[in-house]
Write a structure and sequence with these properties.
Keywords: Methyltransferase, Transferase. The protein has 298 residues and is an alpha/beta fold. The chain has helices at residues 34-50, 77-85, 144-155, 179-195, 201-211, 231-247, 249-254, 264-280, and strands at 67-71, 92-96, 110-114, 128-134, 156-167, 215-225, 285-294. Bound molecules: S-adenosylmethionine (SAM).
Length: 298
């Protein structure tokens, strides 16, 4: 039985205009194309804005003896930003499961390469002073998270820091006065469940970090406001968040719409309705949480 009692699970035929990178075993739900790249740049700026322009909360001392690793770098905006603000002798590695969004040019101290979060090279044990990973919630399955955090622990040198950033998932349940939002959230969560994704990963990251062996676990959360009612920042984040949902169109339609939409037109109309609700009814917001933790010295 589908989430809302619907009966169809046949793929919904639609013209796939976005580029999705198919890599073996991946459940990644977002595309890797120029539109997504632009969205990720916008999102980087939104997140910087709510954290007072800070991109690094872990209290790590970076120097030429300690390398930095970023996992799931996408277009690399975070690591490019970091590289801009620290000594250029600090070696940096930025990895992603696919290279489509890698920047065309980058400082020579950053090495962009294709690697998976769940299987980092064996020669990287005890190598990095800092590992950063942001927004893999649409990529890692529930069982991948402990594997990934153990890998990060392994590649950090003793005393090194990890910093993770994730959005809190749209909460399930009623959205009074916002019928489109209520339907959209139910559909988005059904897609996450069908793919085995950890939609509410922010609730489990602290515990999983401790289980992976990290200490001094801390976090800071900020609300990002969504919609015209919240001014320029709200409009930017509305464009960002609608971009995430648009990016999930093909995975949702290919899965048959989970009983919430029966055609591409219905999907598009639902998103238009959500956008209108965000703009016209004050209050939509999405929490972003940054976690940081240390690998013990011994
Ligand atoms: C939502 S984007 C975030 C990009 C970047 N971290 C940022 O915050 O702008 C997620 C990225 O994770 C990558 N990804 C998905 N599965 C991965 C895996 N198993 N290992 C490494 N990267 C992965 C995707 O290709 C995509 O570039």
């Amino acid at each position: 039985m589908l989430a809302n009692g619907g009966s169809t699970s046949l793929p919904i035929v639609h013209a796939v205009s976005r580029e999705y990178e198919a890599f073996p075993g991946s459940r990644y739900a977002l595309p890797a194309d120029d539109e997504e790249l632009q969205r990720l740049i916008l999102q980087h700026n939104v997140l910087k804005g709510v954290f007072e322009n800070k991109i690094l909360l872990a209290p790590v001392q970076l120097d030429a003896n300690g390398a930095v690793l970023e996992i799931g770098t996408g277009p690399g905006r975070w690591i490019l930003d970091l590289a801009d603000s620290v000594d250029s002798s600090i070696p940096m590695v930025a990895v992603d499961i696919q290279s489509r969004m890698f920047p065309a040019s980058a400082p020579t101290n950053i090495d962009f390469r294709v690697e998976s979060a769940t299987h980092l090279p064996s020669e990287w044990t005890n190598k990095f002073s800092l590992v950063h990973q942001r927004l893999l919630m649409a990529a890692l399955q529930i069982a991948d998270w402990p594997v990934c955090l153990r890998e990060i622990h392994r590649v950090l040198r003793p005393g090194g820091w990890v910093q993770l950033g994730e959005f809190t998932g749209w909460p399930a349940g009623k959205y009074p006065g916002k019928p489109c939002m209520e339907k959209l959230v139910a559909m988005y969560r059904a897609m996450g469940d069908a793919r085995g994704l950890y939609t509410d990963c922010t609730q489990g990251i602290g515990k999983m970090l401790a289980e992976a062996g990290f200490v001094e676990i801390q976090s800071e959360a900020r609300m990002t406001l969504v919609g015209k009612w919240a001014g320029e920042a709200g409009v930017a984040n509305r464009i960002n968040q609608i971009g995430v949902l648009r990016g999930m169109k093909t995975p949702i339609l290919k899965a048959g719409g989970f009983g919430y939409v029966g055609s591409e037109e219905e999907f598009d109309r639902l998103l238009e309705g959500v956008e209108k609700e965000w703009d016209e009814i004050p209050g939509a917001q999405k929490e972003f949480v940054i976690f940081w933790a240390r690998k013990p010295q011994v």
